[in-house]
Model the fold of this input.
Amino acid sequence: MSKRKAAYPAKRSMNLFYKPDRTTKPATVALYVFFVLVCLLGLSKFLVYDVWMETVQAQQALAAAEQQRNSLLLELKDYNEVRERYSRYSATEEERALIDRMEVLALLDEAVGSTADMDTMSISGSTVQLQFSGVTLAQTAQIVHALEESPIVAFTTVNTAATTQSEVADISAPVQAAMLIQLQKEVEEG
Done:
């Protein structure tokens, strides 16, 4: 085995190049200050200018909304007078709950008026009291049936059906009938 001397790297020259520190010169300081100013300017765009523009836009939107509100308030200044006139001429809740009287009269004219003589009729709320004469008991039953087929009639009740003749057993004798008709709103089919 031979002994060889191990070769280690060795530095045989020295680098004497020296770079002077120029960070203290006024130009370098000016560059740092300029860099900081550019960064602040960039941040101020987001932190100041954008917020300021949003504020200006919000103030413009507020002014437009206030102008619209003021114009609507001017339109509504006589609202109480209009509301009073409307409530004077519009139907009340009680009136809306009632059935149209013209519809009731047309129904009675159709069912009773063609066959009998209507003596008296009284409509109160959703109740009709009717007295008619000049029909037989069979015709009275037909009138009741015709009335009960109407969707505005809840039920009918014949209180009295009396004849003026002395013959009680005669079915064809004319009678005088008193009837109570209970009305209802038409049920909408859904």
About this structure: Helices lie at 26-75, 79-89, 93-97, 101-113, 137-148. The first strand starts at residue 117 and ends at 124. The radius of gyration is 52 Å. DSSP finds five helices and four strands in the chain.
